[in-house]
Amino acid sequence: xxxxxxxxxxxxxxxxxxxxxxxxxxxxxxxxxxxxxxxxxxxxxxxxxxxxxxxxxxxxxxxxxxxxxxxxxxxxxxxxxxxxxxxxxxxxxxxxxxxxxxxxxxxxxxxxxxxxxxxxxxxxxxxxxxxxxxxxxxxxxxxxxxxxxxxxxxxxxxxxxxxxxxxxxxxxxxxxxxxxxxxxxxxxxxxxxxxxxxxxxxxxxxxxxxxxxxxxxxxxxxxxxxxxxxxxxxxxxxxxxxxxxxxxxxxxxxxxxxxxxxxxxxxxxxxxxxxxxxxxxxxxxxxxxxxxxxxxxxxxxxxxxxxxxxxxxxxxxxxxxxxxxxxxxxxxxxxxxxxxxx
Length: 342
What we know:
Elements: E1 19-23, H1 28-33, H2 35-44, E2 49-54, H3 59-64, E3 70-73, E4 94-97, H4 103-110, E5 116-118, H5 133-142, E6 168-171, H6 183-195, E7 200-203, H7 209-219, E8 226-227, H8 233-241, E9 245-249, H9 252-260, E10 264-267, H10 273-276, E11 284-287, H11 303-306, H12 310-320
Parallel strand pairs: 1-2, 1-4, 2-3, 4-5, 6-7, 6-9, 7-8, 9-10, 10-11
Helix pairs in contact: 2-5, 6-7, 6-12
């Protein structure tokens, strides 16, 4: 079953399109870090139908990459391996495991009886724990004769207008507490940037309304510049794409800023930026204080993350931001009826 599609020719004229099923049922950051590998597959099989198995909430983001044709809704709690038996039709012609290196994700694809199956769990190539995520999956595909460029990660400009063009976007949330810098520190940074004349807006994902409210109240961010509850991907993408700067922890939004070329300051811990950080470009600053390995899914902020101070973040932000507008008119409350929430 485990074949190497080195000589897989294009689909003959008039023949049914072959189906390639890719499993990467993780979060937004994982999806965006996997874009170079997905595009490598797209280029390798341009005439075939590429299906990506991932959480349905990421459907719009996945289709935006231009690398997949269809989404197979698939998710499991705790970044686990989802069941794929709702796949319909004949077995996939090719199944590719971009989910992880364990046998569970390989076996979930193998249960569909694909004609070919590529998986790290089969030992080719060897999994390297100390390797950047983008490099890892491109190396994996290259070992099977599929070239992929780890720097091919940009998304097209969003067609949706930004709800706050030119603002500094501060995103205090994170999937786990281990990667969540304290709310009071985010508030101090936001308050400093606001006082300097920058428009600061706050974003939060689902179930982060209370966190956004706390940071906003402590920083003096007005209600119309708070975006809790999770924006649609189109609005979120536009907000980040047209922002002056993004400040966040190691989250999906940090990867979205990289995908749009938006300047960013990303706070890392416990996972170091050499494993998940942005490309080495001036517009992206990754802050990290090395320490003993920690649990990225832990229930308390990691000590490496806590060693990053507010002054360090303010200085990093200032090095990437243009001079603020001489007035702060854009932060005044809009007239009634002039601005609708998404």
